[in-house]
Amino acid sequence: MDRCVDKGLRLEPGLLLLLATMDEIAASLLRMRGPTSGPAVNVAPAGTKLGAPARPPAQGERRRARLLQEFGVRIAVAALVVVFNELFMPGDETSSVIRLTALLGLGLNLPYLLGVRTGRALRIQAYLRMLVDVGLITAGLYGAGGLGAAQYIGIHAIVPVYTAIVFSSLACGLAVVFATLSYLTVVALQLAGVLPFLRPPLPDAWVIASFNLLVLNLVGWLAALLAEAYRASRRRLASLYTELERAHDESLRVNAQIQRASQRYVLSEVVTGVTHDVRDALQGVFGHLWLARRSAPGLPEEAGEQLGEAERACERAMRILSTTLDMARRPAVEREPVALADVARRVASLKAVELRRDGITLQVEVPPALPRVPAAPFQLQQVLVNLVTNAQDELRGAVGRREIAIVGKETAEGVALEVRDTGGGILPTHLPHVFEPFYTTRAGASGLGLALSAGVVESLGGRLTAENRRGGGALFRLTLPAAVREPSKSAPTRPTVPS
Fold first, then answer.
1. 441: which residues sit within 8 A by CB, 6+ positions away?
2. Which of 62, 381, 409, 429 is surrounded by the fewest CB atoms within 10 Å?
């Protein structure tokens, strides 16, 4: 008995070395997992839109990575058990059972792989592989002594840990329960005399077994909880990615519409200005021709005809220019009663991801009971997005509080929507020019955003103003007249019949 105790104590450092080596292998496999489940590489594949968020790896790639990890762990553990058995227990009476169990676990990878290639019942196959692994480890523990190998129960923790990482928390819990019950079953059969003791147990074997089973359950269930928290964070990350992709697409659409509106606005202004000046010049020419014909009655008949042709040509040119001016004027859009609270909520949803990325807080304080305004919903959204984006650009590199507030209130002039920020404000020398076309203080900006917004608001019968706040920062106020409420159709009253 003393000889067995001494031999068992001599084997324990070797077991600790084995467990440490397996832990390093599992850690290296987790590090290998990073590129397949972590953030995507910044290199965009061919055909990907520049600026679009990188797509996460496909489901098939993640499944392939999990299978590689599972087979890698199984092969590594089986190989290490074989090496450990041959180095530390070459002539031991139980080494043949341990060797057979390890080689069986190593050889089962081939039928496992063939089963996976069928593509049928993959989840059931994964659970069966897990249970077989637990059974093989229990058989190996029986070969090492059963109750006499109580100090080696920690090797059971390998299966719950890697199933928690690779499969699911449910699989981890099932592995813990099955490992505990299978070992207790082996010990019960040994105590009942059904299975022989291949090695006499230590005097305090039950204490060692109870402690190691407790540690096994603690490690397994903690791994299950951590794996569930990890998967919950992955689901949140996927949800945020979906939100980011939706906001990105919406931002591209809005930006494209703003760019087209800006181009139309600039073209309209240029065409209107040039056409107006040319028409004024032609009117001067036409007037002089008319005076020349009326003030010189003695002109030759041919010269009079030529002057008449010139007058008619000027009239045709002025009619063409007048038509061009009419076409260049911005057409009136259809208006409808719009709730500013809905517009503010849509803009906040659109900018949420970008503002969160820049560490900026957006507050929306627009009462739903505010009177509606006659406008086109998209035009108001375009104006509000532009104002919030300007505030975001101002706060992006600011130090201190980064806050933007959209505040709505009813005023004597109608309904006002204010966009406030906590930035550095607008310089007094720049304040009178902020709504002028092509006026900008930022490199790379077109200087058309605020001018276009002011033009849109004016076309709706309102006005857009800018000022500095007393507490710091800028304030843009959009004021629009309230929509006229249609009188409610009341039921006709019956005439009173005199008695």
1. 430
2. 429
Q: Take residue 328 and report the two structure tokens written for it.
A: 């260049």
Measured CA to CA, the distance from residue 226 to residue 30 in angstroms comes to: 14
Are the beta carbons of 57 and 40 closer than 8 angstroms? yes
From the list 399, 366, 363, 406, the residue with the least C-alpha distance to 384 is 406
Query: Rounded CA gap, 499 and 495, in Å?
Result: 12
pLDDT for residue 19 is more than 60: no
| Closest C-alpha among 210, 75, 92, 67 to residue 145 | 92
| DSSP annotation string for 435-465 | TSTT--SSTT--S-HHHHHHHHHHHTT-EEE
Could you tell me how far CA 474 lies from the centroid of its own chain? 30
DSSP-assigned letter for residue 299: S
- CA dist 477 and 464 (Å) reads 6
Q: Minimal CA–CA distance to 426: which of 474, 379, 460, 463?
A: 474
- For the record, the structure tokens of 269 come out as 């202004």
Compute how many other C-beta atoms are within 10 angstroms of the C-beta atom of residue 268. Answer: 15
- What the block records as the tokens of 261 is 């509106």
Backbone angles phi, psi at 25, to 5 degrees: -65, -45
Q: What pLDDT does residue 329 have?
A: 60
pLDDT tens digits, 94-148: 667 777 777 887 788 788 888 888 888 888 888 888 888 888 888 888 887 888 8
**CB burial of residue 310 (10 Å; 0-12, 13-18, 19+):** middle
* C-alpha triplet 487, 489, 490: angle, nearest 5°: 115
Q: Are 136 and 112 in contact (CB under 8 A)?
A: no
Name the one residue in this structure whose structure tokens are 């208006």: 335
Phi first, then psi, for residue 78 (nearest 5°) are -65, -45
How far is 446 from 457, CA to CA, in rounded Å? 19
